Amino acid sequence: MFLKTHDDVFASRPKLQVLKSIYNGKKGIAFTGYGQYWRSVRKLCSQQLFTVSKIESFAPSRKDVLTHFIESLKKAATRKEVVNISKMVGNLIEKMTLKMILGPVERYEEFKLQELIEELTNLVGVFNLADFVPFFGAFDLQGLKARTRTLGEKLDKALEMIINDHQQQKQDDFIGTMLTELNKQMNPNGDIMDRYSIKAITIDMFVASLDTSSTTLEWALSALIRHPRVMLKLESELESIIGKRMVEENDLPKLEYLDMVVRETLRLYPVAPMLIPRESMKDIIIDGCYISKKSRVIVNVFAIGRDPNVWSNNVEEFFPERFINSNIELHGHDFELIPFGSGRRVCMPREEVRVNHS
Ligand code: HEM
């Protein structure tokens, strides 16, 4: 109801205290309130970053990283070594994603970006009293201010160096592309794409992309390990359609069972089980309930995905076949399955790449 009928009212985001000092007063995209600035940044991202050609241009680098990942798994298996699959999957996604966002990630090892991003994700996810009772902010009862300040300084130092690097040597990654817009006016309001905006958008990309992708992959792997029947069926699809070679990205539309496994994973284990909080932009009455402007709305996608009235009585079971002949997709239009959100604030790569493809 909130997203389907009243998305226009609930398309804003509440301000998160922790991000205030990390952003240095600027705004990014995922955690920024609805308005001209957000619209311009979203437009820029959709027209220049999440285009099919841009995403495809990173395919060779994704393949390189994946090949390396598989080789190291094979080696470990031959030596009968125990591996920490969560850590390996985390590294895999991080390498793929950071290459796309900031390019030659090995050059920035000294900044320990992995640790910074982990701390950032933890801070954004933490329940912060000051977000609900701003009065408590001054006392910093949870010690978040100090952590945020330290993290903000470290991130800023790293991003300054990365941006300088990109200014000296033109690159095609997200930061390089955003720099082509540096100091240009984005809209009639006079918003400018300056260094601070680029840093804030990059920080949002870190938070929005890394943990979400690696956790989804981890859930999918663990569901397959716990359901050998599904694993065997998936293997036989791969053998009959792909054979012995490695799966390429353009094979994906042919792999119907894999697609069902992905949908089933995201139904049972949505990595953003409450989406990213929304905030109402005006007073509204829904189903007789008065909701005042600036109310925070949390959508329980986890509960929707496990609602027996929607998914029948085997709702808790990992059963990809439920999607046979089903037209329930992940695009955000089928409200029984919205792990990427919906409407104006739907996850960006999901929406843009789909729209550009069709
Ligand atoms: C499995 C992977 C992912 C999942 C499950 C996921 C999920 C989500 C969700 C639930 C939202 C909030 C939607 C809403 O409020 O309605 C969101 C927003 C967003 N996501 Fe993703 N996401 C994923 C991957 C990514 C990646 C790889 C990127 C970028 C490289 C990304 C960038 C964004 C951005 C920029 C937003 C904010 C959109 C806005 O507020 O206007 N996401 N995502």
UniProtKB/TrEMBL annotation:
Where found, per UniProt? Membrane
What cofactors are annotated for this protein?
heme
The keyword Ligase is annotated on this UniProt entry: no
Q: Where are the transmembrane segments?
A: none
Question: What's an example of a GO molecular-function annotation for this chain?
Answer: monooxygenase activity
| Keyword Cytoplasm among UniProt keywords | no
Q: Which SUPFAM superfamilies match?
A: Cytochrome P450 (SSF48264)
Which positions are annotated as binding heme? C347
Which is one Gene Ontology cellular component term of this protein? membrane
Query: Keywords, A to Z?
Result: Heme, Iron, Membrane, Metal-binding, Monooxygenase, Oxidoreductase
Q: Which family does it belong to?
A: Belongs to the cytochrome P450 family.
* The protein's name: Cytochrome P450
Q: Which organism is it from?
A: Gossypium mustelinum
